[in-house]
Design goal:
Layout lengths: L1 E10 L5 H11 L3 E6 L5 E7 L1 H11 L7 E10 L8 E3 L2
Parallel strand pairs: 2-5
Antiparallel strand pairs: 1-3, 1-4, 2-3
Amino acid sequence: MRRVKAIVSGRVQGVSFRAATAHEARGLRLTGWVRNMPDGAVELEAQGDPGAIVALLAWCAHGPPAARVTGVSIDERDVIAGDRGFELRG
């Protein structure tokens, strides 16, 4: 089990990045959340199988078709026991 926090920068707001990220994460059976940041970036935390985390982070490097990702910073986080679902936050 692995948990990461990622900050995705570029043109990632107003292009359905959050919804598409949640869809990808749910398809990979990950838990966590995704939200827009005031500075125009998108922040997420994801937890689950390490291979699925790698797949989600690879997807985040390009995002949905209208997005223009310029960077993804990743930090490891402690696993949260009992974490369920993948939610959209403000």
